Amino acid sequence: MKKHIIKTITTIICGTALSTNLALATGIINTKDLEPANKLSLNTTQTILYQNTLEFVNNLKTLDTESKFELETRLEALRNYILYPIILTNVIKKFPDDFPLIKYIDYLNTYFPKTNFTKDTIDRTFLYYSNNEDFNSINLNVEVLGKDYPYNLTSLCAIGNSELNSGTQYDKLELSNIFNQALAQRYINSCSSFLNAYVDNQLINETNTIAIKDFILNNATTSRINLIKRLDKITSLNYQNASLANYAITIVENPKTILENNHTTEKDLLEIDSSNTRNLASKFGFKNDQDLLSFIDLVNSSQASPAIKKQAIAEYIEINYYKISADLVKQYITTYYTDRTLEQSIRRAIASKQPYLQYINLLSVDRQNNSEWLYWKAKAMQASNPRQAKQLLEQVLNQPGFYGLLAAKTLGKPYKVVNSMVYSLDKAPDLQKEFSWYAEAIKEANKLNDTNLALYIWRNFEVDNNYTGLINWSYRNNLYYLGVNSSIRQGLRENLAARFPNAYDHIFANTTKNLLVSKTFAQAIARQESAWNYNAKSSANAYGLMQFINATAARTAKNMGIDYTGVSNLYNPEYAINLGSYHLSELLEQNDNNRMLAAIGYNAGPRRISQWLNNSNGQLNFDEFVATIPFNETRNYVMNTLTFDYYSQVLQGYKNPVIFYDSEWNRKY
From the candidates 163, 343, 529, 586, which is the catalytic residue? Predict the structure, then answer.
């Protein structure tokens, strides 16, 4: 990756820098859309009123005269507050009749013309108007915004529905394109009124017919078949698509029908069959090994094509892989396989010290060239072909990630590729000067502990994917979660400075100096757990920067001798870091300062450490044990946190960064 170079050319005319050069200077490519907000007040003194009003709105289900007046009064009082447009758009979306968009569209279009919150509001209200046949409201707003406004697809469908139903002039080609987009993107809920109106006006053309066919083929699965059923009016417009839709419904509802046909020459029907082999395998069920043999007999004696037969059996083995006895899987896996079952078989063979090279050689080309399987191919060939094994390890050594580190350790060579991933971040723009409203609004949302809102506003900046100035700004302002989010969205996997800020440096340093856990390993855990979003909450009810569940947090706090009053404590970064670092030290102390085992305990619970060590019974090397961790999530977690630890050591200037401790590497597991 080439480092993005900022051109700091500034053209001055009469002492004023041109806005076109601002884009060059900052790497922000939508400056003209963002600059109008600079004219607004930056008042941040009405925080309490804003929070109370937000709660007031969230608790309201409907508006009566009194509550509407109360809400209008509150909004007027907040008009100069920095987050006024946020609360305003929330109100418009929730009460589109009482707070009609047309009353506020000039304000939004003047100061926030293309922001996500403006466009989301247009989407929500236009959809409401379209579903309620209030086409006049749509038309009035379109007159203000113009036909060339960059509407989202939901809004385009609403506008199209309005044009078709209100007698206004429309462009057939434009509507045709919207129709095709709605089907391709599965916008069935938000575009249903438009789709029906388009059909009622007899506008279906040849490109639409093709789009309908593609829609049927792309949704002929168990989870999506209802989309096809809902569009029966559309799919039945011609014989070919009607027949295809009926076949899709039949196959999804009774996948055994696949076995009655050989569609080797009928591409569309074959595609539907192929999409439902997993459905067929799943509905057959599994009680014992005999069911696999029965399924193989059933499929191989059927009329289905050879490719469908092989795929169906492979899917059956994949679905039931850990239910079928290992010996029976081994008997059939080289004939009926998917990449997933081959990888599972490789891990099983590694765990039992059995040969596995034959499975690697059956993987798809993409998977074979993955650094993980190149590494294990090299390991499998070390005895029979040490020269080629070394060449493969050298290849892995030049790749980023955990297996590059393993290759370095195995070869006893420095991991030089990391040096090509360390870039200086681009100069941070002066957002306070250039985009004052956005800078202050983001900071205000963060001050309110509303990281979701801060991220929502942050995403309005459009940048060149290689540009890291905004990321730099976020790190300089201790808004680490914003920069990490940008590094992910921009695909900066090989820019370590963009991905791994030295977040909460002093807190981690002070917290870990008297603990067993290192600063960089504690930071690596936090980075993996929350991507530095201190307000994060997972689906498993884990909270905060270090993602504690309530019970573990309470127990750790008790061990530390500090107060714990509830999950609200976990949203405090300093508290979370103290608690998380202490818990990591407990895990390290219990496991001979072994970071890999501590990471397992942090992610999957301490019981899993002893359980998996008992399973391996001291037979596995470090790399083998990691590769055979039973849970995919935990395996990836271990690989990520150990890699992040090393990257952080490099970024923070450690003189001798450690890949793996000798005590971790040299022991048996």
Answer: 529
